[in-house]
Amino acid sequence: MTRYWPSRADGLPPGQRLLTRMPRFSDNPFLPPPSGPAVPSLEITVEGEALARVTGQMLEGLGPRDVTADFHCVTTWSVTELVWRGVPLREVLAAVGITKPPAPYVVARGADGCTTTLVWNDLTAADVLLATHLDGAPLDARHGAPLRLVSPSQYGYKNVKHLASLDFRREQPRAAGKQHLRARVALEERHPRLPAWSVRLPYRALIGPTARLSERTLRRATARLG
Ligand SMILES: Nc1nc2c(c(=O)[nH]1)N[C@H]1C(S)=C(S)[C@@H](COP(=O)(O)O)O[C@H]1N2
Ligand SMILES: [Mo]
Hints:
The protein has one domain: Alpha-Beta Complex (Sulfite Oxidase, Chain A, domain 2), CATH 3.90.420. By secondary structure, the chain is an alpha+beta fold. The longest helix is centred in the last third of the chain and has 30 residues. The protein contains 4 helices and 11 strands. Strands 1, 4, 5, 8, 9 and 10 form a 6-stranded mixed β-sheet that branches. A 5-stranded mixed β-sheet has the order 3-2-11-6-7. The protein starts with 16 loop residues before the first strand and ends with a helix. β2 and β3 form a beta hairpin. Molybdenum atom (MO) binds next to loops.
């Protein structure tokens, strides 16, 4: 059985430990990956009203590049030196004419129904990528095919897999649950209300069960599809 207890390592952000391999992970490990066609398409809306659509062809035209980054889950596991391939999101937004925020908040939604809220400055930071590849191969069902939001400076839950839409909102959406609005790893913004130190250990204890359940959900979904 794969061991999921992360180990101490030098150079990691506060409270983080190292895993040698990136697990399949989720806030809801019973959530299967989407079964739809894996054609890259990103819908951009304002309060649900269509604003722009980003296609795989447009991304190709913008010149995807390789970016090496570490990845930090709020439950304290980190993996280092992932090589993502994609286009900086701010370049993608500029290409469709969005150079200033149509509204301050953005709800990023994955095709599996998973959502997170970001603010404009975090969404358009220089290191935020709209990724199509990981470590030299197209994204797979485990890690977010066909498009993934990659924001290395924020906890994993802002890095939406199977990214399908970005909806700009004038008001901050309510149901943030356990997610911090900013979730900056360097500032250990793990939880909107609880102090970071208090969630480190309980979160760490959840890594093994969550990763195993997430992998099982993927195996079952794959078996169903044949
Ligand atoms: N669509 C979607 N994106 C998601 C999640 C998810 O369940 N669904 N889980 C988030 C969490 S909590 C983490 S830590 C990472 C896990 O990414 P991985 O499965 O590629 O390791 O994806 C994030 N993005
Ligand atoms: Mo996470």
